[in-house]
Specification:
It is built from 10 helices and 11 strands. It is an alpha/beta fold.
């Protein structure tokens, strides 16, 4: 289905991706796609139902969403998530396929093919990891701030940097998420995006507006224990 969804990219989802900073090379390499709203034989049968991409009425569960396949180091698709396009009213912006991650075997973060990078950024959300990758920074993503995927393990000598959104309000939730994710590593660093006059700052916005400063953010990452002292 990944290739099919990639072939369905059309004007609106492409425009949205370009606005978020994507280029055609990244869209192609990461097989980003679009799931149209349709009744199709593709969604017929037990395989489609058990994988969580189909509804019993043979409709797509991720319809009207930009799709982000989770690609492993062996180029296998281990999961897929969908982001609603702006013109469609839906209170749920992101969806994973139906069924629990354990049931679906979705045990790996997004961009798992980068797992062996010597320095690896861990962030929240596929768009942020994909944009960091586009600019040459290996990054994996969790599908939510408070989630974890047990298929990833820190490699010997690997530097892990947690980089979540910065926000003027509600930062206690971000801090809590960072603390939760940090427990899964032997040693970890935390980087913080400066707000620079905004109420919220994420990776893709930062690259669009301050690409030249991203190295400074990464180089300024603090060891987790030191970061804890700073935020107290």
């Amino acid at each position: 289905m990944t290739d099919y969804y990639h072939s369905c990219l059309s004007d609106e989802p492409l425009t949205y991706l370009y606005e978020r900073g994507f280029n055609d090379i990244t869209i192609s390499m990461l097989k980003i796609g679009f799931c149209p709203e349709e009744v199709s034989i593709r969604y017929r049968g037990e395989v489609a139902l058990q994988s969580g991409i189909a509804l019993p009425n043979e409709k797509a569960f991720l319809s009207n969403r930009i799709t982000f396949p989770y690609i492993s180091k062996n180029k296998e698709i281990t999961d897929i998530r969908g982001r609603i396009i702006p013109s469609v009213a839906d209170t749920i912006r992101y969806k994973s396929p139906l069924g629990g991650t354990y049931f679906r075997g979705a045990d790996y973060p997004y961009n798992m093919f980068l797992e062996s990078a010597q320095t690896l950024i861990v962030t929240e959300g596929e768009i942020k990891a994909a944009i960091a990758y586009q600019y040459g920074y290996p990054a994996i993503a969790l599908p939510g701030m408070m989630t974890w995927r047990n298929g990833f393990r820190q490699k010997a000598g690997q530097k892990i940097i947690i980089l979540f959104d910065s926000q003027a309000e509600g930062f206690l939730q971000v801090q809590s998420a960072i603390k939760s994710v940090a427990l899964h590593f032997n040693s970890v660093y935390v980087a913080t995006l400066p707000l620079l006059g905004r109420s919220k700052m994420d990776i893709d916005t930062f690259f669009l507006e301050h690409e030249d400063l991203f190295d400074v953010v990464i180089q300024s990452a603090l060891p987790f224990e030191r970061w804890l002292q700073v935020i107290q």
